[in-house]
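Changelog-adjacent note: as of this version, every example in the card shows the full chain rather than a window. The one below runs 223 residues end to end.
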Amino acid sequence: MLNNFLKKNFSIKKNEIDLLKFLRANTNIDSGGNKLYDGLGTHSLQNPEELVWAIKKIQEIIKNKKFKNKNFLEFGYAHGFTNTILNKCFNFDKIVSVDIISTAGQSRDSFFANLRFKNIILLCGDSRSKFIEKQISLNGKYDLVFIDGGHDYDVVKNDFEIAKKNISKNAIIIFHDIDASSCDGPRKLWKSILKKKNKGMKTYQYVCKNYKIKYGLGIIVFS
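Full-length structure tokens:
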């Protein structure tokens, strides 16, 4: 499976089951994986089934040649596991990741390991600062955005507004934690987006409710 997974043109259609197994091996039991929590902070912060669903959905969308999917903006790098998985699947030309850089619950070794072997710019600071917002703009436009930074409503809304200003004409924005049990900000914003959905926007969502910890992913497609 690893040989297929590391190929430049990774196809989830052929490797969906193997990718799911791989992600489960790197995820804690409470979130749908096979690992016991060991306190090392090296585990994936995504539900494996939700992440596979999102990768599959993105691959379906970018079959339309209007979607380049070359420049990736991420709010919330953490220890970089999600960043690396998405980069392995989509081979981005440029990655810009924003994070306040907290060591709480994160592995320092994983943090540095996941910075390697990719074209990444790490913006260390609060996404609500004017400096960070300007740097995001200077490095845009972005084809794919993943919002998983601060989880208070005002932070998530701010990240969404910045993302909308800096996406390419045909772009995808992903929200994490749209139905999380531990926070309400992403859920509240996602509900408001669904109510106000504009022409030219398509939305998709998937919430896996099979495990103790719930997250949920929402996708907006702009075209």
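Structural remarks: The mean pLDDT is 93.
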